[in-house]
Amino acid sequence: MKIAIIGVGNLGYSIALGIVGQSDIDVESLYLSKRNTSTLSLFEHIPNVTITSDNLEAVKNSNVIILAVQPGQFDNVVESIKPVLDPKQHCIVSAVTGRNIEHIENLIGKEYPIIRSMPNTAISVSQSMTCLSANKLGQENINCGKQIFNSLGKTLYIEEDLMQAATVICASGIAFWMRLIRATSQGAVQLGFDAAEAQELAMQTALGAASLLVKSETSHPEQEIDKVTTPMGCTISGLNEMEHQGMSSALIRGLVKSYEKINEIKN
Ligand SMILES: NC(=O)C1=CN([C@@H]2O[C@H](COP(=O)(O)OP(=O)(O)OC[C@H]3O[C@@H](n4cnc5c(N)ncnc54)[C@H](O)[C@@H]3O)[C@@H](O)[C@H]2O)C=CC1
Ligand SMILES: O=C(O)[C@@H]1CCC=N1
Description:
This protein is about 50% helix and about 15% strand. The protein has about 270 residues and is α/β, with parallel strands linked by helices.
């Protein structure tokens, strides 16, 4: 696979880290293209990685083009690479929020496989939850996207009209979970642990909770909660207080607010 990442900011950088750190797919070459390449020094001496500020060079030498620029930069970037795009050579994988497949087809034509992807920054450690949708040719070539993203976490193929919701739950979700972990650390410090210990306890407990659900596929969160809540014990006291304070409600309302905001971004 010859991959180009166009736009190597927060997300593009995370994807690049994930790709160079995995061994499941054979990456013949990886082009990293952004305007100011000084932030990419980490990748300088990695075999098969080329750092460039020339998008056209990156596109010409690759067959999977991952677009990871901001929505406002997207149209100009796509227009600028269009002269070197070739439907026989290129599969387009966009990770850009709010630019749907129809919009991309209107820019470059329908003859390209186009895969819309929504990864998250945990792709840098091969733990992304990536949602995918595609046009007709993209569906026929979906393996090009699945191969990359399955090697860097999990994928779920979705109808495109769920992409905004997937962005909130999975991409923004990293920030939401980070804040829950941070709040747990703050509580642990108040209860006597130093900051480093507090974070370790919070991180590993969050990982343990998620792993319980991932590894026992029939399990529901409430079944696991039932196993922890001793009658009249400390867990149920804490949990009920959190719910009296609106924990689940705050989270759900935050997700809905985030969804309302993302829908303000015009395609
Ligand atoms: N940050 C995140 O966690 C996620 C972001 N996304 C989406 O990914 C896209 C990128 O987001 P971020 O990485 O956060 O933004 P960012 O602003 O950190 O990165 C954008 C990158 O594109 C580069 N760029 C701008 N114009 C360019 C051009 N003409 N040629 C080449 N590179 C150019 C910029 O220098 C920058 O490095 C956005 O559309 C965002 O909605 C999607 C999922 C998660
Ligand atoms: O916050 C945002 O709007 C973007 C989309 C998902 C992650 N970052």
